[in-house]
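To the wet lab folks,

You asked to see what we're planning to order before we commit. Fair enough. Below is the target structure as tokens, and below that is the sequence we designed to fit it. If anything looks off to you, flag it before the synthesis order goes out.
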């Protein structure tokens, strides 16, 4: 079979006054292994206007809009918004060659031009990418969250909201039986116990809130009747108080007996100015309903949008691309669909240097509980002064006796602890035994250490004791003394196992540490439990050094976390997990659209096919020390070796690079008639002469003019049997195949 078609390409340079180019030759490529992802080369006749020619300057921010179109059989079209990268003029031939690219080229251009490094804090790769994109005034795509405004869209737990008018003389009841064709496990079904004598049965879902004057799309994903029917779908509008406003336009669908039907949708419907509610209405047009006949619906969807997406509710799943949630009770509330935002945290493999502050009330923000008064010593939570936040503990004594306040902290014999506190005293005076901070053990032979206050008044100072718990120790007793008739304020208490004094922390306070290099957490109730400080791993990977481009800054972070960043032909930036996957199939077949095909199986090109990957990282750390780290994956029998001069971002990049090579041992280079809906990430089905059907993924597409053909590159090719699902008759959905059966192996 041959297909007749007509092709066209046009290009406009977006100057102050846009200029259309006269194209002699063109090639446009999208390739998911390239950066930039999209590239084009145009050979045009040189503009006669010299002023226009001067303006077409790649040193400026010049955009070129390309439009590709195919008409007649299998029409398709595609538009590209690309940046001008180079211009070459052949004055003798009167032609001009323009090189164009998607906006990754701008990230490759932008280079940090400072004398100091920069760092993005918080180990989310999304944060680092957003930081880099901001340098070129760009941002990651964030798809708006959709809400299904139907609270009981598929009858999973109840029939709430659904009613049936059974038609003249008829009686029917609503149930929600289990069904293998359901969205979820159940459907809403009206079953006739008394036959109707005339038609106009009406199944209604009532009511769903809407906003007057807003645009909505309505749909029912599944409608089935036990007898052949012609059904009409429409919406009734009501005020918020229930007053009838009017009806929407309607759609009529003929359904076959026992067959699930779609097509029940109304898109871009504007709610009347007085509307506040809307009912879904399904009406039969004139036929009677016998005893035991049924009408069922499932998958009701109402979104505030001009087009209707595929059905979803809070229990839906969609791989890793979207997250779904109920806004309230499952199956009894509205539900949302949001694009999953890949963070790519770098500490996923390990964390380092976890410290625990054993004080359960270290900052007195909740109370001064835990401390006990001895003799005349007294303590109270005070907001008079505080080193951090709002409160401290005020300690007083009444006489020169052994009066103090204390707290006991569980401890282990033989372990060394460092105990510290920030204190502020208001007057010098006699303190028994010149004590300020006193530490002794509880249990076994008593050992003590004391630190006296300085003579500096009304200034926060830090006191600390290093104490090794002797044999039989069960706890450390930590005491604070005040001089007679004075007040000492105590704040930011810290006790950690070990021998080094570190800066204070609690579950909500880094005390001056750089956020993103450390994380803190309470182990229980905030301000009333022990707390941890974690030194996060691989933070050097977030350092951006002078002379490094924005692309080289983010690229290793992406590889280490199996993420891909690309800018599409419409200047939309995407951060996705793994390789690019897009719905749809590209078919290239003999006697259909194939013009030429080459197949290559090679072991020699290590840049294309390999079984293992070894990556070496070499860098200078923050202390000026030379560091080297390695990341490896796969089999040593055929290895790709890469070297990067930058900090180690943690393991993962080698596995990512290896994963992208899967299936590259066998490669098709196909030439077919141009189809402008082809795209990297779509399924590829290729049929070549004398070769079994191959199923894989499109990795790159190049459209060429005036040849009007496209070159299609592949990855991950596998042989598919002729009776696989992909080649089954229309009407068999992939999700009707049993779980665990590969769709390429399914036999109808």
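Sequence we intend to order:
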């Amino acid at each position: 079979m041959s297909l007749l078609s007509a092709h066209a390409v046009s290009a406009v340079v977006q100057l102050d006054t846009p200029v259309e180019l006269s194209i002699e030759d063109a090639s446009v490529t999208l390739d998911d292994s390239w950066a930039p992802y999209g590239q084009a080369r145009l050979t045009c006749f040189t503009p006669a206007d010299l002023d226009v020619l001067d303006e077409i300057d790649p040193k400026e921010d010049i955009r070129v809009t390309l439009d590709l179109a195919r008409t007649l059989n299998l029409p398709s079209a595609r538009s590209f918004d690309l940046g001008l990268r180079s211009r070459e003029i052949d004055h003798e031939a009167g032609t001009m060659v323009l090189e164009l690219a998607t906006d990754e080229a701008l990230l490759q251009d932008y280079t940090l031009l400072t004398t100091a490094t920069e760092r993005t804090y918080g180990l989310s790769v999304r944060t680092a990418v957003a930081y880099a994109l901001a340098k070129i005034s760009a941002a990651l795509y964030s798809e708006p969250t959709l809400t299904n405004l139907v609270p009981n869209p598929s009858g999973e737990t109840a029939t709430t909201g659904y009613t049936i008018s059974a038609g003249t003389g008829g009686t029917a009841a609503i149930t929600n039986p289990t069904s293998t064709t359901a969205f979820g496990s159940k459907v809403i079904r009206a079953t006739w116990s008394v036959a109707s004598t005339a038609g106009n049965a009406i199944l209604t879902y009532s009511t769903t809130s809407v906003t007057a004057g807003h645009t909505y799309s309505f749909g029912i994903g599944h409608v089935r009747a036990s007898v052949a029917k012609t059904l009409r779908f429409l919406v009734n509008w009501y005020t918020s108080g229930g007053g009838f406003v009017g009806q929407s336009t309607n759609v009529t669908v003929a359904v076959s007996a026992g067959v699930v039907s779609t097509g029940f949708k109304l898109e871009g419907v504007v709610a009347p100015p007085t509307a506040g509610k809307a009912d879904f209405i399904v009406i039969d047009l004139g036929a009677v309903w016998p005893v035991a006949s049924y009408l069922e619906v499932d998958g009701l969807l109402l979104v505030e949008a001009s087009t209707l997406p595929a059905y979803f509710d809070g229990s839906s799943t969609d791989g890793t691309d979207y997250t779904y949630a109920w806004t309230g009770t499952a199956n009894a509330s509205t539900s949302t669909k949001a694009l999953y935002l890949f963070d790519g945290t770098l500490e996923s493999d390990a964390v380092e240097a976890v410290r625990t502050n054993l004080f359960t009330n270290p900052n007195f923000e909740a109370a001064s509980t835990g401390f006990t008064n001895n003799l005349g010593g007294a303590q109270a939570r005070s907001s008079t002064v505080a080193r951090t936040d709002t409160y401290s503990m005020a300690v007083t004594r009444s006489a020169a006796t052994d009066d103090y306040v204390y707290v006991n902290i569980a401890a282990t014999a033989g372990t060394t602890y460092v105990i510290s506190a920030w204190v502020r005293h208001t007057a010098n005076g006699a303190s028994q035994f010149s004590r300020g901070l006193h530490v002794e053990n509880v249990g076994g032979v008593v050992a003590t250490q004391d630190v006296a206050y300085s003579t500096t008044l009304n200034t926060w100072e830090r006191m600390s004791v290093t104490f090794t718990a002797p044999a039989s120790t069960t706890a450390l007793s930590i005491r604070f003394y005040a001089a007679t008739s004075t007040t000492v304020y105590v704040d930011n208490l810290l006790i950690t196992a070990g021998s080094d004094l570190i800066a204070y922390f609690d579950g909500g306070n880094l005390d001056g540490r750089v956020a993103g290099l450390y994380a803190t957490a309470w182990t229980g109730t905030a301000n009333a439990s022990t707390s941890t400080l974690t030194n996060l791993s691989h933070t050097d990977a977030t350092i951006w050094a002078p002379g490094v481009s924005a692309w080289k800054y983010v690229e290793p972070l992406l590889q280490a976390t199996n993420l891909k960043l690309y800018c599409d032909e419409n200047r939309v930036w995407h951060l996705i997990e793994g390789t690019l996957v897009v719905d749809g199939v590209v078919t290239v077949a003999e006697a259909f659209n194939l013009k030429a095909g080459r197949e290559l199986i090679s072991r020699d090109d290590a840049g294309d096919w390999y079984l293992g990957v070894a990556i070496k990282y070499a860098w200078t750390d923050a202390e000026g020390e030379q560091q080297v780290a390695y990341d490896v994956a796969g089999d040593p029998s055929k290895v790709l070796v890469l070297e990067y001069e930058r900090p180690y971002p943690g393991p993962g990049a080698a596995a990512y690079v290896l994963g992208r090579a899967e299936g590259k041992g066998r490669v098709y280079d196909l030439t077919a008639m141009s189809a402008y809906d082809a795209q990297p990430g779509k399924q590829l089905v290729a049929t070549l002469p004398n070769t079994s059907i191959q199923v894989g993924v499109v990795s790159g597409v190049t459209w060429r003019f005036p040849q009007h053909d496209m070159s299609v590159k592949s990855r991950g090719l596998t042989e598919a049997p002729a009776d696989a699902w992909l080649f089954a008759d229309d009407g068999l959905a992939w999700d009707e195949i049993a779980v665990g059966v590969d769709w390429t192996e399914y036999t109808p």
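Structural context that might help your review: Helices lie at 50-55, 104-109, 125-134, 550-560, 653-660. DSSP finds five helices and 47 strands in the chain.

Thanks,
Computational group
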